[in-house]
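Support reply, case 0932

Customer input (verbatim):
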Amino acid sequence: MTRLKLLSASLAIAFVAAGCGGSGGTVPDEGTGGAVAPSGGGGADDSSSGAVTTALPGPGGSDISALTPQERTLVTENLVVYFEFDRSDVRSDFNAMLAAHGQLLATNPGVSVRLEGHADERGTREYNIGLGERRSQSVRQILLLQGAAAAQLATVSYGEERPAVFGSDEGSWSLNRRVELIYEQ
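Our regenerated output:
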């Protein structure tokens, strides 16, 4: 729970500091795709040390050396899938990202991921819990089709209870309609 709050706060700070953008990730606009880089960097090329990262951020890390450089970037810098208003179908602009995550899971059977579904504040609490669950199940289905094992995937819905950004405008709502991929080992 504390880790998600820290991630949410870090993302909010990163958006403000980077002018709602940054290298490797974009803030989604209405009708366009994008993903947000996780807090703490961890991209495929760590410019501070000059070393190429071969582990996924998270407890223990996961070996990503078998992935192509493009897949490494997709996996390490894209851990959030965004959704349109009142929709649970995964947008096509997230297909490559989820294919890379599926490949990572297929080649690392000891790695698991928790898919945390979220919704914006519109709708009842009960409806948003259901919508967050449908969103996490949609991402789960794609990962299964990409080679992940069912035992590697857990889903949870927080509905509107854990917003990434506070606000009652389309910019805030679009960042709160999401599924976060939380890797565990």
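We compared this against your earlier run and they match. Two observations from our side: The helical segments are 2-17, 69-77, 95-107, 125-145, 170-176. The beta strands are 21-22, 25-26, 45-46, 51-52, 80-82, 112-118, 153-159, 178-184. Please reopen the case if you see a mismatch on your end.
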